[in-house]
Design a protein that fits this description.
Layout: H1 3-8, H2 11-20, E1 25-29, E2 33-34, H3 74-77, H4 80-88, E3 91-94, E4 101-106, H5 109-118, E5 123-126, E6 131-136, E7 142-146, E8 149-152, E9 158-159, E10 169-170, H6 173-176, H7 178-182, H8 207-222, H9 228-243, H10 251-263, H11 268-282
Helix pairs in contact: 8-9, 8-10, 9-11
Length: 284
């Protein structure tokens, strides 16, 4: 099934067929973007929908909250509210992570050539600009892990452009490592904090205590499945509230925290802003 067939075809029928095979779907507007939140859910006033498996307090019948609206429930997909959205839709999208998949999105010829040289063969779907390489397995999503390459899996969506060709293989370490080794380096701001008044020995200058705090913050960020921005800020705030005034933190520690946030898709600017906001909140 080609992209042109989908654009001209019955989006609702396509969506129901995909859902029956276990692929969570949602309608896309022109421009390959999800439908916006309804007035009751604007700015997540309803409490949001943190992930598919645990919808949270939101019971809105509309296709709200972007990727988190994706579902395999035919009663929802074919409901009157969703049917109106399908009539206005420009395409069908799906949640790769919800289907147990990871997509390596290759945007140009150079990215495709790189994939052929560095990634194991798998199922390939042709896109308007390049190719989607589909692997069996789930991982965090991230944009621009290298030039022309995005990773779409959990907390993400992709346009359905057909089932593709080739045999799908298991998610390899070469793809998982893209989030660590290939993504653009996230540079932390240098932390400048003063030693406690009186020049006394820092009460936290214990490698074990400090390491535990940094590791807990990394774990909190890594485990986030929703509200990643807020989680990153909260983790930064927790570390700084304990160690920000005593001189324990070094650039190596902040680099670890920024790297954990970067692996969740946070940009260098997001990390720097969250760190700066935490410093301001604490008066540092």
């Amino acid at each position: 099934m080609t992209e042109q067939t989908l654009i001209r075809g019955d989006h609702l029928s396509v969506a129901l067929s995909l859902a029956a095979s276990g692929i969570p779907v949602l309608p896309l507007r022109a421009g390959k973007v999800p439908f916006g939140n309804c007035p009751a859910c604007a700015k997540n006033a309803c409490g949001g929908r943190p992930n598919m498996k645990t919808p949270g307090p939101c019971t809105c019948p509309h296709p709200c909250h972007g990727w988190a609206a994706a579902t395999t429930d035919p009663a929802v997909i074919g409901s009157p509210v969703w049917t109106r959205a399908w009539r206005q839709a420009d395409g069908v999208a799906y949640h790769p992570g919800g289907a147990g998949l990871t997509i390596v999105d290759l945007d140009n010829a150079d990215a495709i050539a790189w994939a052929h040289d560095n990634l194991p063969a798998t199922r390939i779907v042709t896109t308007t600009r390049g190719e989607h390489w589909l692997y069996r397995g789930v991982m965090p999503s991230a944009n621009a892990v290298r030039p022309g390459v995005d990773v779409k899996s959990s907390m993400s969506y992709a346009r359905w452009l057909g089932s593709g060709t080739g045999t799908m293989t298991d998610l390899p370490d070469a793809v998982r490592d893209l989030l660590v080794r290939e993504s653009a380096p996230v540079r932390p701001v240098r932390v400048s904090v003063s030693v406690p008044a009186g020049g006394g020995r820092c009460p936290h200058r214990s490698p074990v205590f400090l390491e535990r705090g940094i590791a807990m913050a990394e774990q909190t960020i890594t485990a986030a499945t929703a509200a990643v921005h807020a989680t990153v800020y909260g983790a930064f705030l927790a570390v700084l509230s304990t160690h920000g005034r005593c001189g324990c933190l070094t650039e190596a520690h902040t680099q670890r925290l920024f790297a954990a946030a970067g692996a969740k898709g946070e940009t260098a600017r997001h990390c720097a802003d969250a760190w700066s906001n935490a410093l301001t909140t604490l008066g540092l």
